[in-house]
UniProtKB/TrEMBL annotation:
Belongs to the prokaryotic/mitochondrial release factor family. PROSITE patterns: RF_PROK_I. It comes from the Bacteria. Keywords: Coiled coil. Residues 148-182 form a coiled coil. It comes from Hufsiella arboris. This is Peptide chain release factor H.
Length: 204
């Protein structure tokens, strides 16, 4: 199943931009559901008033049409009077919508692992034993391989290899999560005013 992660951010904009983030989130979720996409809210950073967000991160699962992504990715301009400062002359509020790079999800299921056995060799190429006790496991989804020849027991080596594979996969997931947080911070700071990909007119 395909998945895309959308970040909606007010950048360093005022409270009205945070309100626009909240409203854009509602529109995105409603449109995604019409496209039969699964919607998951990954993260929200609230603003100082209810119904306003500094940023929001959404995950959409399913077939995400290119036209849907192109419609929203970039700067969104919301034209409306301020709901917080009625006398304020400004009526243009900007938010950013970015699609974050999401590493391929790391699945951990033993059915996705292939096993190979071979003879373990000692110093100088001497055989440690005459049976294929050494084990190599390969995680098909990521290509990660673990080779273990710690003991003379194939069963024990297999168990050790699976534990080490699990550690490798956990490290990979942590790395992907760290990269996603880094991308989110960068996108949040780099909101471009002007040249909007979408203009919305309506009350905030």
């Amino acid at each position: 199943m395909e998945e895309k992660i959308f970040l909606i951010t007010a950048g360093s904009g005022p409270l009205e931009c945070c309100r626009a983030v909240y409203k854009v989130r509602e529109l995105l979720i409603a449109q995604a559901r019409k496209l039969d996409l699964q919607v998951e809210i990954l993260d929200e950073i609230p603003a100082e008033k209810t119904g306003a967000l500094q940023s929001c991160t959404l995950r959409f699962k399913g077939f995400v049409p290119e036209v849907f992504m192109n419609e929203w990715q970039g700067t969104v301009q919301w034209i409306a009077a301020s709901p917080y400062r009625p006398a304020h002359k400004r009526k243009n509020w900007f938010v950013g919508v970015e699609i974050l790079e999401n590493g391929a999800p790391v699945s951990w299921n033993e059915s996705e692992v292939t096993f190979e056995t071979f003879r373990a060799s000692g110093p100088g190429g001497q055989n440690v034993n005459k049976v294929e006790s050494a084990v190599r496991v390969t995680h098909q989804h990521t290509g990660i391989q673990i080779r273990v020849a710690d003991t003379r027991s194939q069963l024990e080596n297999k168990s050790i290899a699976l534990k080490r594979l699990a550690q490798k996969l956990e490290a990979l997931q942590n790395e992907q999560a760290s990269q996603l947080r880094h991308d989110t911070r960068n996108k949040h700071l780099s909101l471009e005013r002007g040249n909007p990909v979408k203009v919305i007119r309506g009350p905030l």
